[in-house]
Amino acid sequence: MDISLFAQILVWGLYAGCIYILLAIGLNLIFGVMKVVNFAHGELLMLGAYAAFWLYAYSRLNPYLVLPLAMLLIALLGLSMERLGFRPIMGTGKLNEIFLSLGFMYLFQNLVAYLWSTNSRSVRSPYSSISIPLGAIKLPLDYLIIIIITVVFLIAFQLFMKQTNLGRAMRATSQNREAAALMGVNVERMDMLSFALGSALAASAGGLWLISGQLVDPYVGAIPAIKAFAVIIIGGLGSIPGAIIAGLTLGIAENLVPLLMRFFMELFGISMSFTAWKDTIAFFILIIVLVLRPTGIFGEQGE
Amino acid sequence: MRYTTLVSVLVIASLLLAGCVEHPEEPEVGSGELKIGVVASLTGSASATGTDMWQSAVLAAEEINAKGGVVVNGVPMTITLVQGDDESSPKAGVEAVTKLITEDKVDLLVGGFSSGVTSADSVVAAEHKVPFIITGASSPVLTHRTDIDTSYFFHHCPTTDDYGERTTIFVNEIIKPEIYARFNFPEDRPLRMALLYQDSAYGIGVHDATTKTIETYNLNIEIVAAEKFKMGETDYRTPLTVIKATEPDVIYPVAFLNEQTLIVTQGRKDVGLDSIYLSVECNDDPDYYTGVERWGEYSIQESRFGPYAIPAGPIESAVETFRDDFTARWGAPPSMMGASTYEGVYIAAEAVKNAGTVDKAAVRDALAEIEMSQMVEAMQGGVITFTQDYRESKFDLYMQQLFWDDSVGETRPKIVWPNSVKETDFVLPDWYEPGST
């Protein structure tokens, strides 16, 4: 196998993994603290991308600069979802939470289609034509920036969770809600914070996805959301390190495995394309992990 | 209870908004009524195209009704259109067509976008023996299949066989000589073509048509890569990187609009695959020119109706009139699926008029015998008629190349082939890199 081909595809996998990680961590945070599975999380990615698009369209600023504001807007939206939607139904049964999140999913899709049509939107990064040569491969500058931003977000997130009182309170709520409440933690505030933070991370995934050259339309959140669910199940429900490792694994595997399968088949004289098998590979990994370790790589019994 | 109220409000709001997305007004119902079911993706991923098809059908119906409707045995009938939203999915398509036939009692069907969806919902039309003029789905399988009775299906849309063949011949006749002349390639060197196609009836159809054309015409073209992708895919960097490693001279993506935009953008911007990108006709759409930006410059499109280029000749003024009327009615220009759906309603009206009845078998027979002058899309022989074997109408397809237009800040197409409608010569860009020598 040509090593430069391998390395280049590894870079594409790394980029995909970054988007999955940002989306999955937000999903995992909400699940960890509130034990709510938010099926509308992909729509928060979509809305984050739209927020970045409109902020960029009106300001004409560097799209990376509008990203924090887009994240803030979607964080406020997440806060509203928690207050007006999930808060009233907490503890009334998982089915209610599932249908509520599905309701949000369709509501956001149709609202966006109604307001801004189903036409695709895109932004142009000022760095879109710049590539950095790394040996035999070329790394587009935007991808390097996205990888760096993801790493910065992850470090900031870890510091927040480990070094601040709020972060410790969120972790305590995640580990044992009743005990945390008895120790004086305002668990409802932790719910709000986790939803806002999770939504902001989804918005960052959407914004970066858009800046990397992707097109956004009202239905674009569905596939990344499914991948994010796969990531948190593989990594272990509620586990942040699990989401990071699983996100990277999934991103790299779904890009690299088709290539390896192709080379393997060529050994037997069979020429075949496996690039359409990306989703199959992702869910094959999911099945293997569930069979070998039903709680996921970093999941705990009873999660 | 509070949460029950909230969930109810959310569900009702979702349904209301779903209803708000696309419900243009319908023409008024007359006394004698010809009910045409328009099968289109009014919601879901293909809703931009589906909406355009519906709007084109409405325009055609309004024009016909304004001229007195469809006169059948001296009695005027008003066309009433009924929406059948396939929601861009086979399951919803089956439900929509079932409703159109069993509840709305339509006399015939027009529309159908996406071969996968139409392949599923046309089964219902076959079971009920309802004439179906298919104007948006391109797989020839729709009228070739033998597991159902397809004798009521009439394909008014170029098939994947048509444009796969036309594009491959263009590559051989026009692109190949330019590349070989610039790089002094020997004539016996095969042109290296890479295919990146959607894993669907549409993509596989073009792939097969391309390989079949190479064989049939004994062309010196080698398929050096054939990579598939799943419909709706957004990340093409890996297959494009694999394709780049095979050193192709031209790349033929077989993709829908959003897919094609990303393939060309990611191919040139991220992967550095500076080649000639070919494209299937459904991408001749304003959104494509906006989305692909400068990366689409010098790429090639096969087309039959587009928002910008108009082939010179007998249909030129009809195209302009249709485009102006559509824009005045709906605020934006029509797409090619809209054009064939617009013609589809006229074909339906003409068939009913010729049949002298709305009896479905008689309408089918009238469709089989129809001969109408071409309207807004150039037809072979200048006539809309259906082949005897598979009931396909035959279009005069042309190839166009995209050139940057500073005045609009986007690329714009110019027709480069065939010579009868050519606006300018094909240009091989300076940055073009051929495959291996």
Could you walk me through the main structural features you see in this protein, from its secondary elements to its overall organization?
The complex is a heterodimer of chains A (303) and B (437). With 303 residues, chain A is mainly α. Chain A has one domain (3-292): Orthogonal Bundle (ABC transporter involved in vitamin B12 uptake, BtuC). Chain A is 74% helix and 3% strand. A two-stranded antiparallel ribbon of chain A has the order 1-2. The radius of gyration of chain A is 20 Å and the shape is globular. The N and C termini of chain A lie far apart (42 Å). Chain B has 437 residues and is of the alpha/beta class. Chain B has two domains: 25-158 and 317-384, Rossmann fold, CATH 3.40.50.2300; 161-303 and 397-421, Response regulator (Rossmann fold). Chain B has helices at residues 2-21, 47-66, 90-102, 115-128, 141-144, 160-183, 201-216, 237-245, 257-270, 286-292, 316-330, 336-355, 360-369; strands at residues 33-40, 70-72, 75-85, 108-113, 132-136, 153-155, 191-198, 221-229, 250-254, 276-277, 300-303, 372-373, 383-384, 398-405, 410-417. In chain B, helix 4 (115-128) links the parallel strand 4 and strand 5 (132-136). The longest helix of chain B is centred in the middle third of the chain and has 24 residues, at 160-183. Chain B is globular, with a radius of gyration of 22 Å. The N and C termini of chain B lie far apart (75 Å). The chains are: A mainly alpha (303), B alpha/beta (437).
